[in-house]
Write a structure and sequence with these properties.
This protein has 15 helices and 15 strands. By secondary structure, it is an alpha/beta fold.
């Protein structure tokens, strides 16, 4: 059987937005070649023995596009199944088409696995339908930069500004102010509704709305910290009615989930369903220590006594209680509560008995009341 290269769209950010087909292709990969904006959790879907190669711009040694193409060829010729994991969709503002054409010319079998485009996923998570009856008959996607390091895109702003429908722009922090200014200066009304979405579909997603003119001023005063999505059009007004992702009770909360290895980790998923960013205790000790020290973790949950004892053993009993002094501690069951007390840790939430679902509800209730 010949090797196949799968060009997989990883989706807009959240790891569970990858398609089922994409997930299955990852599961059988011998090599995963991924971009830097791909969520780390997706890499765990590949076999443990699979080689993982970061070719994104944030990698220690970023790889140019030609080198990526030849890397795909090299791995395929070694007889390996290759998963090329790409942010968003491989054929929308990406080099997926270029990579597919190169593989075709080299006679290498490939398959394109579509992904949820960032424009679609991020807008949905912001509660903004990019089309709606009465909102115009067109949707225009604009890329904020072109290839080979070019900072300015060749866009007919005069024509674009006159379109009645929705405009969706992919923009980096340098391009966003220019794009906003260009739309206004070429005739788009400064009073038109607009939104800027950063970190779309991730727990850190932030959405800012206002008029086009207000946002043009705001991004100059407070530049965005990374890649952003700009949406311009009447549809932005629906956010007040349709927002859901950032209105969940634990949105913006970071929760460290400590549990025994033999226990299922469904508590993390239950907390995430309520809007929290759940950090499972498989993260490195140093990373967790820094986040606790910087008060970047809002709550820590312990479901067993061994989880409490393991935490105390990692950091020392006295230091463990100090680290948790400004964090909401939650325990499930009398054994976990007793172990916490012996470690000098005072739980704010103590559920004597119940399921993980009931435990998650108790955490939600605490933050609603405080």
């Amino acid at each position: 059987m010949r090797s196949t290269v799968y060009l997989i769209g990883a989706g807009p950010g959240a790891p569970d937005l990858i398609t089922l087909r994409g997930f299955r292709c990852l599961q059988k990969a011998d090599v995963v070649i991924f971009d830097h904006m791909v969520h780390p959790r997706l890499l765990a879907a590949a076999p443990a023995a699979a080689e993982r190669i970061d070719v994104g711009s944030a990698a220690p040694q970023p790889t140019d596009q030609e080198a990526i193409c030849y890397l795909l060829l090299e791995k395929a010729r070694e007889g390996k199944t290759v998963a090329r994991l790409k942010w968003g969709d491989p054929f929308l503002f990406d080099h997926g088409g270029e990579e597919a054409l190169f593989l075709h010319e080299q006679g290498v079998p490939f398959e394109v696995v579509p992904g949820v485009p960032t424009a679609i996923g991020a807008s949905a998570y912001a509660g903004i339908p990019i089309t709606y009856p009465g909102g115009g008959d067109t949707v225009t996607f604009v890329r904020g930069h072109e290839d080979e390091g070019r900072e300015k895109a060749k866009v007919d702003w005069d024509s674009l500004a006159q379109l009645e429908g929705t405009i969706v722009c992919y923009a980096g922090p340098r391009q966003l102010p220019r794009m906003l200014d260009a739309l206004v200066s070429h005739g788009r009304s400064p009073d038109e509704p607009a939104a800027v979405i950063v970190n779309g579909t991730l727990f850190s997603q932030r959405t800012t709305t206002g008029t086009l003119g207000e946002l043009a001023h705001a991004v100059k005063e407070h530049p965005v910290g990374g890649a952003a999505l700009l949406i311009v059009g009447k549809v932005v007004n629906f956010r007040d009615h349709l927002r859901w992702f950032d209105s969940r009770p634990l949105y913006g909360r970071r929760v460290l989930v400590m549990h025994s290895k033999e226990q299922p980790d469904d508590l993390a998923e239950l907390l995430e369903d309520q809007g929290a960013e759940a950090i499972v205790d498989t993260n490195t000790k140093l990373d967790i220590y820094r986040q606790l020290l910087d008060c970047k973790i809002d709550a820590v949950t312990f479901t067993t006594a061994s989880a409490v004892l393991g935490f105390a053993a990692n950091y020392g009993v006295e230091q463990a209680s100090d680290l948790l002094a400004h964090t909401v501690v939650a325990t499930l069951g009398p054994a976990a509560a007793d172990a916490a007390g012996r470690a000098g840790i005072t739980p704010a939430i103590q559920l004597q008995a119940g399921t993980h679902a009931a435990f998650a509800d108790a955490v939600v209730a605490h933050f609603r009341n405080h």
